[in-house]
Design goal:
Shape: globular
Distance between the termini: 27 Å
Strand order of the largest sheet: 2-3-4-5-6
Number of helices: 3
Bound molecules: cobalt (II) ion
CATH class: Alpha Beta
CATH superfamily: Peptide deformylase
Structural class: alpha+beta
Helix content: 10-25%
CATH topology: Peptide Deformylase
Order of helices and strands: EHEEEEEHHE
CATH architecture: Alpha-Beta Complex
Number of domains: 1
Strand content: 25-35%
Radius of gyration: 16 Å
């Protein structure tokens, strides 16, 4: 089911997501389906559960979009379409590199964000099998961005004060729904 995407300004995006209890996974299957449906409908490459209003530690990503990138096949991808349940980044290494990021919760804004170029992540897939994966470049970037959502961090939090200040008005407008967007969103009402 396509769910409304929570817009910038909603406190759920600032909350740390709770781990999924794998002994009682509950509605995990339908949650995963909703994440995919919502992500594809919004033409995103990744989405985290807090973005559909569920503060649980899970995100999904479809890496096939990047398969023409230079170092794509250096990544230890398990699947092109990957579900990450209770993920843990074990290490980040490599040079800092800067690349423009966007976010389905912050439509029409794209800003340069600096992150480490490689990482190693541990997670469970949709069958609750455990995996470890090493990746770099754009794949690592997508994972770092979605992982941050589970920590209550948005890419705008990583910008320098000056850059954030420039965006303040635009972000305020997004939070109250004054934004031109093609997919369904939920906005903070006041
Ligand atoms: Co995002």
């Amino acid at each position: 089911m396509i769910r409304p995407i929570v817009a910038y300004g909603d406190p759920i995006l600032k909350k740390k997501a709770i781990e999924i209890n794998i002994d009682e996974p509950g509605e995990l299957k339908s949650l995963i389906k909703d994440l995919w449906d919502t992500m594809y409908n919004a033409k995103g490459v990744g989405i985290a559960a807090p973005q559909i209003g569920i503060s649980k530690s899970i995100f999904v990503a479809d890496f096939s979009f990047f398969k023409d990138e230079d170092n794509f096949f250096e990544n230890e991808l398990i699947n092109m379409k990957q579900v990450f349940i209770n993920p843990k980044i074990i290490k980040e290494k490599g040079d800092n590199y800067t690349y423009p990021e966007g976010c389905l919760s912050i439509p029409n804004i794209s800003e340069n964000v600096t992150r480490k170029s490689c990482l190693k992540i541990k997670f469970l897939d949709e069958n609750l099998s455990s995996h470890e994966m090493e990746c770099s470049g754009i794949i690592a970037r997508v994972i770092q961005h979605e992982y941050d959502h589970l920590k209550g961090i948005l890419f705008t939090d990583k910008l320098k004060y000056k850059e954030r200040k420039k965006l303040r008005e635009e972000l305020n407008l997004i939070s109250i729904g004054e934004v031109d967007v093609k997919y369904k969103m939920s906005f903070l009402k006041n």
